[in-house]
UniProtKB/TrEMBL annotation:
Domain Non-haem dioxygenase N-terminal: 25-125
Family to which the UniProt record says this protein belongs: Belongs to the iron/ascorbate-dependent oxidoreductase family.
Gene3D superfamilies in alphabetical order: B-lactam Antibiotic, Isopenicillin N Synthase, Chain
Descriptive protein name: 2OG-Fe(II) oxygenase superfamily protein
Positions of the Isopenicillin N synthase-like Fe(2+) 2OG dioxygenase domain: 208-289
InterPro entries linked: DIOX_N, IPNS-like_FE2OG_OXY, IPNS-like_sf, Iron_ascorbate_oxido_reductase
Pfam entry (one): DIOX_N
Species for this entry: Coniella lustricola
Amino acid sequence: MPHFNDISQYSYVPETKENLDWADLPSIDLSKYGTEEGKNELAAQLIEAIRTKGFFYVIGHGIPQERIDRQYSLGNAFYNLPGEEKLKYIADLENGGYTGYRPGGRRLLDGGVYDRTEVYNLRTTGGHMDNHPLPQLIQDNLEELEAFGKELHDKILDPLFVLTAIALELPHDFFTKLHRYESNHESHLRYMKYSKFPKEEADKITDGLQSPGHTDLGTYTLLFRQPVAALQIKDHKTGAWKWAKPLDGSFTVNSCDTFSFLTGNYIKSTIHRVSLPPKDQRDVDRLGLLYFSRPQNDLVLSTVDSPVLKREGYTQNEFERGGHKVPTMAEFTKLKQTWQQKGVRSYKETDGQEILPGFVGRRHN
Ligand SMILES: O=C(O)CCC(=O)C(=O)O
Ligand SMILES: [Fe+2]
């Protein structure tokens, strides 16, 4: 019998051959980041991307593919643990906790079918993954996981934060200072698994969705290349849903609620959803790897003082405009997570609920 901790190499499934309506997303090539000229060019490209499409690819980041493959292998090994073993690490979902495991079957999808989405979140705070307890599999690989999180900060997030600051004419380290890996924050790495549905069940899901349209709550979300198509993005301008295509060697990145608050809604929080895969990928499980970045917990989410925002007239976010108390990152996280996770049966029940004065939770279709 294999031991829990045997980690075999995960093999990616072949990409779809279907001709889907793919989103046309720009690529931010971080190999140009080394010069002032390159930085300025990328900053202009980045701000255009997050104000129009909301999603973009990051390429040229220098993270070796083996390191990413290894994370997929670890994620796969986690999901291969017996169900009762995984349940030992369940998150405190009813109270806004997300650190740990969330089993599938907690939500009714369209057509009365239960979801098959499992989530395992590993939070980093103070530079350490602080989930307790940890499965042996994760414990045995903790140093590697913590170093991987740091590498994502150093090679992808920090450059993106610098480019964002340049685009807003702020000091270059303005956002990196708020996102130090060693600070008290709730960024987290996530292994995610969407198990395949039996055909009769998939056919009943009339809207074809595994997860309705939503926005993420932090600053940037990094999605690792995922060969099973399912992610769809809502175009800010046209409102059309387009599929996100997996691009070799890339990360797909989206801007989220916190950037919208910090910039008086100049940066959009992008709406996206997860569909059933196309027909030629319906018989495989979809394994995902994501990193959710969030600034330090004590940051008050007020609009920042930027010359660009002043010139363009984006000087107040929804809290400030409505005369509400502006929450800290920790307060907002707790309330939005509670709204997301609490024990309702269907996603639709929570659409339109006020999460805190000035901010309403939405599920978009
Ligand atoms: O699975 C995906 O592609 C996206 C998942 C997602 O949007 C989320 O977990 O917030
Ligand atoms: Fe999301």
